[in-house]
Amino acid sequence: MKDENKTKVELIKELKTIRKEREKSAVNNITERKQAEKKLQDSEEYLKILFEYAPDAYYVNDLKGNFIDGNLAAERIIGLKREELIGKNILKIDSHAFTGVVLTSTDYYLSRFTGNLLSSPP
User: Fold this and answer.
1) Shortest CA distance to 110 belongs to which of 71, 80, 46, 65?
2) Sign of CA dihedral 67, 71, 72, 74
3) Are the CB atoms for 76 and 54 separated by under 8 Å?
4) Does one domain contain both 63 and 107?
5) Which of 7, 46, 89, 98 is the 20 to 30 A CA-CA neighbour of 108?
6) How many angstroms separate the Cα of 83 from the Cα of each of 43, 70, 88, 108, 121?
């Protein structure tokens, strides 16, 4: 039935129905968004735990060699706390801390940190 043939009461009833459907849809969208946010948060926490407690040492550095982050195994192996390294450049850190440690990144390969920067793995 066309709108012009509907009574005022029918149009108001239809409008109320449409509003209820929109409200339900908005609530569903909010619920879906909150569920997605929770999944993302859980995933981030899971990856953080994997990184932090991995048995291998991991340090993250930028393309210039500045430390961004590291895990507990790296702290134990190198003997320096993460807070001591973050923001510092790999080439400007005391070489004794890296004796026997091989650090790799996309731009740097260092072997037994003696100040020698290699362009490819040894």
Assistant:
1) 65
2) negative
3) no
4) yes
5) 46
6) 25, 9, 10, 22, 28
Rounded-to-integer distance, Cα 94 and Cα 72, Å: 19
pLDDT above 70 coverage of the chain, percent: 74
Please check whether residue 75 lies inside any domain of the structure. Answer: yes
- Tokens, residue 46: 């899971």
Number of independent structural domains in the chain: 2
**What's the length of the chain?**
122
Task: For 41-101, give the DSSP string.
Answer: HHHHHHHHHHHHT-SS--EEE-TTSBEEEE-HHHHHHH-S-HHHHTTSBGGGS-GGGGTT-
Instruction: Please tell me whether residue 103 adopts helix, strand or coil conformation.
Output: strand
- Please check whether residue 57 is in contact with residue 73, taking contact to mean a CB–CB distance below 8 angstroms: yes
- 98, 100, 95: which is closest to 115 by C-alpha? 95
Q: What is the pLDDT of residues 18-49, one digit of tens each?
A: 888 888 887 788 888 889 999 999 999 999 99
- Rounded Cα distance, 61 and 93, in Å: 13
pTM for this prediction: 0.52
